[in-house]
């Protein structure tokens, strides 16, 4: 007998999307609602296709003290699924661990939430055990113990599916998020592993599938591209696994080299073309554009006022569209080379730069900068997003600067 189900994870319902106050009100509202819109679309697909069940692999809520609003919306979604005879199997992750304090709403009885120690629950269909599902919820925010070793396969069902919110490790040693080894999951001989925690969709293994569905809706500018869930059909040995994109707001980042553009008009029409290519029928797009390279427009783009006008032009009337492509950020890294050249004139800086370069390329990105006598006075703690952005920029800067100013002199 075949079984069909949806695998979603990291819904982060009611995620506040802080730091987006610069967006127009209509777009900000859409973004603020987007985790709920994604949930509604997941439910709609489940009901349209009459799947047997939905798996939610942790971080369903955004924080431990989950909002009442998130619970109310989730309960309503579960009730719709119940009316369509669709089961839900859910685990809690590091963001919504069981230890949090909240006013708990009771969910309908088509929903099963796994407890803090690994356990098995069976799905019966037409009087026989069709699927055994295995999983556990985070009791606390950090789970340092490898709990996969406590999953026990009970061989009385057609299919076996594992739910796990965690991070794999091989070389670097265990982590704080239910560390596991891929080889341990393979040893369980399950038909599918529905993973959560990593927000970038990815497969750790093909047969059997060990899969991160990624976040259901992109939660920050770094979570770019399509977001959604997997639609899985298992029929004997045959598997069909399809990704279904459903996010209401997509984050995108494009880099445009200005080298070949001789007029602002040409640059604007290129950027307009990029916008149209990114436009989605059922979603809005938040776009960050980065201009790089050197060209005839370098000088005019050096002026921040020009950059602002350019951004204004690209934003024209976009906030009135359902399928908007809103340029929320325009960056100009065109003149990086000029500045680097100046800095390199200073021999002390050159020495420091070489030190920083090693840190950057070895992955200890900011250590050199934070211990730099002058630099550290101007630095406040950085978010993970900022760190990653700076690392990208630093790598590019250093490569360009070294190439231009040392090797070509
Ligand atoms: Mn998460």
Automatic annotation (TrEMBL):
Pfam families: Metallophos. Transmembrane segments: none annotated. CDD domains: MPP_Mre11_N (cd00840). GO terms for molecular function: exonuclease activity. Keywords: Exonuclease, Hydrolase, Nuclease. SUPFAM superfamilies: Metallo-dependent phosphatases (SSF56300). InterPro entries: Calcineurin-like_PHP, DNA_Repair-Maintenance_Comp, Metallo-depent_PP-like, Mre11_N, Pesterase_YhaO. Residues 4-200 form the Calcineurin-like phosphoesterase domain. This is DNA repair exonuclease.
């Amino acid at each position: 007998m075949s079984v069909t189900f949806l695998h979603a994870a990291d819904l982060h319902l009611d995620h506040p999307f802080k730091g987006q106050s610069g967006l127009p009100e209509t777009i900000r509202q859409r973004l603020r609602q987007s985790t709920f819109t994604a949930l509604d679309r997941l439910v709609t697909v489940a009901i349209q296709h009459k799947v047997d069940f939905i798996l939610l692999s942790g971080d369903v809520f955004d924080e431990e003290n989950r909002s009442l609003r998130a619970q109310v919306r989730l309960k309503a979604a579960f009730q719709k699924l119940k009316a369509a005879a669709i089961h839900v199997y859910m685990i809690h992750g590091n963001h919504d661990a069981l230890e949090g304090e909240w006013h708990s709403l009771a969910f309908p009885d088509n929903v099963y939430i796994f407890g803090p120690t690994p356990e098995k629950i069976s799905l019966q269909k037409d009087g026989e055990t069709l699927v055994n599902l295995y999983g556990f919820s985070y009791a606390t925010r950090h789970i340092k113990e490898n709990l996969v070793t406590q999953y026990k396969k009970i061989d009385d069902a057609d299919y076996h599916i594992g739910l796990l919110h965690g991070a794999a490790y091989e070389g670097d040693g265990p982590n704080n998020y239910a560390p596991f080894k891929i080889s341990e999951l393979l040893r369980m001989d399950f038909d599918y592993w529905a993973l959560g925690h990593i927000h970038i969709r990815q497969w750790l293994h093909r047969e059997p599938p060990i899969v991160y569905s990624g976040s259901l809706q992109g939660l920050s500018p770094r979570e770019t591209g399509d977001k959604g869930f997997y639609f899985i059909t298992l029929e004997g040995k045959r598997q069909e696994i399809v990704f279904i994109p459903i996010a209401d707001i997509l984050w995108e980042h494009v880099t445009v080299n200005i080298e070949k553009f001789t007029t602002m008009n040409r640059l604007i029409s290129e950027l307009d073309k990029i916008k149209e290519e990114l436009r989605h029928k059922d979603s809005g797009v938040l776009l960050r554009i980065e201009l790089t390279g050197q060209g005839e427009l370098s000088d005019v783009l050096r002026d921040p006022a020009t950059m602002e006008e350019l951004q204004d032009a690209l934003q024209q009337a976009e906030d009135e569209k359902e399928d908007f492509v809103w340029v929320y950020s325009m960056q100009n890294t065109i003149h990086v080379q000029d500045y680097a050249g100046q800095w390199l004139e200073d021999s002390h800086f050159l020495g420091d730069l070489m030190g920083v370069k090693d840190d950057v390329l070895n992955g200890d990105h900011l250590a050199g900068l934070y211990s730099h006598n002058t630099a550290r006075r101007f630095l406040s703690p950085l978010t993970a997003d900022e760190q990653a952005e700076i690392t990208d920029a630093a790598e590019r800067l250093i490569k360009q600067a070294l190439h231009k100013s040392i090797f070509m002199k």
